[in-house]
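Hello again,

I reread your note about wanting to compare the complex against the isolated chains. To keep things tidy I'm splitting this into two emails, and this first one only covers the full assembly. Below are the input lines as submitted, including protein chains and any nucleic acid or small-molecule components. They are followed by the predicted structure of everything together. The single-chain runs will come separately.
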Amino acid sequence: MAVLTYREALNRALDEELARDDRVLLMGEEVGEYDGAYKVSKGLLAKYGPNRVLDTPITELGFTGLGVGAAMAGLRPVVEWMTHNFALLALDQVVNEAAKMRYMSGGQFSVPIVFRGPNGPAEYLASQHSQALESYWAHVPGLKVVAPATPADAYGLLKSAIRDDDPVVMLEAEMMYGLKGEVPDGEFLVPIGKAEVRRPGSDVTLITYSKPLWTVLEAAEELARQGFSAEVLDLRTLRPLDEEAIYASVRKTNRCVVVTESWPQASVASHVAWLVSRNCFDRLDAPVELVSGEDVPMPYNHALELAAQPNVPKVVAAARRVLYAEG
Amino acid sequence: MADKKTLGGHDKKFLMGLLESMHRIRAFEEKAGQMYGLRKIGGFCHLYSGQEAVAVGVISALDLSTDYVLTGYRDHGHALACGMDPKAAMAELYGKAAGCSKGKGGSMHFFDAGKHMLGGNGIVGAQIPVAAGVAFAQAYRGRLSGSQPTGATVCFFGDGAIHQGAFHEAFNLAGIWKLPLILVVENNQWGMGTSWKKVSSNEDFSAMAGAYAAHGEAVDGMDVLAVHDAAVRAVKRAKAAGEPALLEARTYRYKGHSMSDPQKYRTREEVETYRARDPILLLEGRMEEAGLLSAREKEALRAEAEAIAEEAAAFAEASPEPAADELYTDVYADRESGETAPSEASWQS
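Full-complex prediction:
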């Protein structure tokens, strides 16, 4: 078992899939000569050449749409967005083209494409470069959305996404690219649509995904010190949601906190909280709690930007509220 | 004995094919308009009447076993010119299961995978980057095997779409990556109710090709032979050198932007001026002059096109509605059985 960084795990997945299937190609800003804005594509241009690893102009709508057409014509493009912030310029091509092509054509066309890049707050980047936009994608039928939090999942989910016949949006995070974790040596896939219990527990379920997993695991540790057994469920895929895993955990603990770094209104987390409230109502011992990013644009000042995000005290406090152990 | 006479270098068989195709589109659109009036067809319905020479002229220059066509929401003419079965087209307008998109697309979303007709796109200009991607796949496959593009892709759009960023971004990509993409702007002079001149800083659209170091050409969009010949040149270059092109076809739509358009922005006289240069009449007149079309043949083509449209409407009328569980199919590739996803089930219960 090798220890890889999150970026190395993504790189390995891309490398293997490019080698495995010549319909796979990578395009995006700085993915080639520069080796990737975050070095995810390091060495791939040298290995696979400019026909398959393509530097694009800074035209997110254009190259995202081009990827959609290439996928309709049978290729399997991986489109790297330098960040999800910039992907808003390409929203139409993802929502109106990629996601709907199969349906509008009565099932005649597949769009096997992966859109991927960092999402969520980083550090000192202010409002336009530091936001969690997954709700935009998770809202749309026809898309699949994955949000791996570990190097192993980053590897296994990216490989699954590339082989999937539907458009998949993948959420990475600038702050996670250097994160190290064990990745099994042989080839493996992580199935899309399957959550994972990261820490078993019996008193409260903490549901999260992507980078906040690490905050939530710390919070679970702190709760253990305080005498509470928290189960941590990592959704890993945001669409389709692994509802069975969510309900199985909540029906065991009878209490639930959902943690996200995105804004609270109309978010993946608020939807999960609603599903739990509706489908586990008889088993809940307390109303479902939501810990989200604060409902403000991200400020530049470091103390303020940290205050805008979920942290261990916020998660612990929310867990104690559903445990009726406040104060 | 075969007729040796030609017109503009084209033989009678080819010319009759063009005429037949334009007649069929015209008759189909007339029937669609009529059925819309009878409320058999709903929603937005954009008719192609008047612009037939553009779709027919360009698509007759393609080999649809290897080439592809994409268009916007005024897509009936392009689909029919690609060879889509008029019955499937009309059934789609009726929202029936036998429609070309199983009744899920409607007027704006005609698709025919077998005929390489890749839609039918309702967002102005959004099909242009997608078309660039199809052309990219053709170039990509060629490059991987060390050869030319495997075909060319034609993208139709209107004068309203040419100012979208999507056009400019896609054209630039086609230029840097040498994609076999032929962009055909159908300048019908009205972007819904806005005159193209009012919103265009350059009234020569074909000149925009220069911004991307590509070939640009303006052509009389009412003259099917001029359109065809220009398309042949563009397709040849695209396939040989991966050179994108922009063709501006000056044309005119006889009907409103959609069926709900009262057309207060233009005069009856303006419409009549263009009807006098009707693409069907124009070709018929030239063929008659060249001794390539008899009165009997002319009438037969018209009658046959009307009969096909009539038959298509009868077929659509008699076709069944989609099954209720079709609502949930075709969303994902791995969920094709009509079963509902867990989340959908829990929302409905």
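For quick reference: The mean pLDDT of chain A is 98.

B.
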